[in-house]
Amino acid sequence: MNTELLGxxxxxxxxxxxxxxxxxxLARMFAxxxxxxxxxxxxxxxxxxxxxxxxxxxMNWKQFLKAMMTINIFWLVYxxxxxxxxxxxxLNPDGNAGQTADTAFNTIISFVVNCNLQHYSxxxxxxxxxxxxxxxxxxxxxxxxxxxxxxxxxxxxxxxxATDLGNFWNFFLKSITxxxxxxxxxxxxxxxxxxxxxSYAGKDKFISLQGDTVNVSxxxxxxxxxxxxxxxxxxxxxxxxxxxPLENPNYQTNMTEIISQFIIPVAMILAFGxxxxxxKLAWVFFSVMMLGVMMLMLPSISSELGGNPLIAKMxxxxxxxAMEGKEVRFGPTATAYWSTLTTVTSTGSVNGMHDSxxxxxxxxxxxxxxxxxxxxxCGVGLLNYFIYVIIAxxxxxxxxxxxxxxxxxxxxxxxxxxxxxxxxxxxxLIMTGTALASYIVTVHPNIDWAVKPSAWLNNPKYHGFSEMxxxxxxxxxxxxSGFEGLGDGNIFWNVTTGVVMLLGxxxxxxxxxxxxxxxxxxxxxxxxxGTLKTDTLTFGVMTxxxxxxxxALSYFPALALGPLAEHFSMLK
Length: 572
Known about the structure:
Layout: H1 2-30, H2 41-51, H3 61-84, H4 101-112, H5 122-125, H6 128-158, H7 168-192, E1 204-207, E2 213-216, H8 221-230, H9 251-275, H10 279-306, H11 309-313, H12 331-344, H13 359-371, H14 380-400, E3 405-406, E4 409-410, H15 413-443, H16 461-476, H17 491-521, H18 537-570
C-alpha cells in the first residue's frame, strides 16, 4: 500500500512540475510573444493560406462563436456518414461492419463534444480508418476547440476595454501545432516502447493455456491513447479502455497516462493568470480547485482501501482493499486516484471498472462530474469555473451592497441571467434524463422495443438507479466514463444521451464566452478601496462555498437515492 501511495504522490508531483512551466509557455504563446515553437510559423501560415483564412482578423464574441459552431457542425455531418459506411471503406483488416444510424448519431456527437461516451466496443465497433480519421482527428480538434474558447476569455480580460476576443482559427490551430501534437508524439513514443501496439496489422492469434484459440485485436493504438488523455477525451482504442493490458501495459504507462490527462487542465488555469497579468488570481483559482480535488480524492482512496463490508462479514480478508474490478498491476489506490482525476477532468478514461468501485467512491465520481469545474477538460474547465465565479461575484456584491464587479467590469443583470441559466442547465439535463429512464424501467419494463427496458440494468435497486444517473451525468459533463452494468447500446440511450451531450457541451461554452465578451465591452473601472478583490483567500472561500451549496441543492436528492442508499444498505 505504501508503494501505491508513493506512486500517486510521485504522479502528482510530476504533473505540477510539468504544468507550471507549461502554463507560462501557453500564456506567452497565445499572447503572440516569442517562444521556442515559433519555428512552426511557416507551417501554420501555409495552412492558413491554403484555407483562405486571415489569422489576424479580429473577432467579437459573436463572430468567434459562429466560427466555432460552424466547423463543429461540419464535423458532425462528415463523421456521421463515415461511421455508417465504415464497413465498405479501406483500412478495415478485421472486417468490422458499419454502425447503425442511432449508434453513429451517438458516437459522432460524443467525439465532437470531447465526451467519447462509447456505446460500442472499440475493437469491433470501429475500423482503423474511423479510429484515425474520425476519432483521433476529433481528439485533437475537440480539445483545441475548448482551449481556443478559453483563450477568448483570457483575451477579454487582458485589456481594459475591448471588443476583439482574438481569432478563433489562430487559437485553434496553435492549440494543435504547438501544444497537443508535440506532447502527443512524446507520450505515444513512451507507450510504444512500453508495449502498446502501434501497427496496422489485423488481429493476432495465439493458443491459450486452456488450448483455446484467442484472437487479439491490435492496431495503431499508442497514437490514439496519447491524444485521448492529453486532450481529456478518454475514448479507448479497446473496449476496456486503459484497464486493457495492451492499452495500459504497466505502472509506467499508467503514470504516463494519468499525468497526461491532468497537465493541460492545470496549465490552462495558471496560463490565465499569466496571460492577464494577474498571477495571484490564477493561484486562487488553482487552490480552490485543488481543495475540491483533494476532498473528492482522499475519501475515494480511503473507501477503496477499506474494502467491501459485505465481503468482510463473510470473514474474508481484504488486505489489499476492494479488488473487484481492479487491475492487480495497479491496485485500488492507483485506481481511486485515476477515478478522481478522470472525473474532475472530462477525460473519462478508466484503469478499473467504475461500476465495481465502492458505493461512496461512486458518489465522489458522480459529484466530480456534477460540479464539472475543478480543472475540467482542456479549456472548458476554466469556462465552467468562470460561471461559478460570476455567481460568487454577484452574491458577494449583494452582501456588501455594491454593484458586482469582476476585473474592473460591472457584472449586471444580463451576465447574471446567462450564468444562472448555465448553472441550471446541468441539473435539468441530468435529472430529466434520469427521471425519464427510471419511469420507463419501472412503468414500462416490457414495452415492445428492440431492447426492452427490463434488460437495461444488470444490477437492481439503488445501484441500478446509480447506473442511469451516472450515464446522464457523464454525458452532460462530456466525460464519457460509465457504470457499465447499464445496457446502453440501444436507440433510447443513444438518442437521449446524444442530445444531452450536445447541449451539455456547447451551451456551457457559449455562455461564458458571451459573458466575457459582454464584460470586455464595458468601461473599465479602476480598483478603489471599495472594490471586491477576487484574488484573495476570502473570495476563494466564497467561490468554494457557492460551488458546494449550488451542487448540494441540485443533486443531493438523486445521490441519496443512488450511491448513499446503496452504501447504508451494505452496512446493515
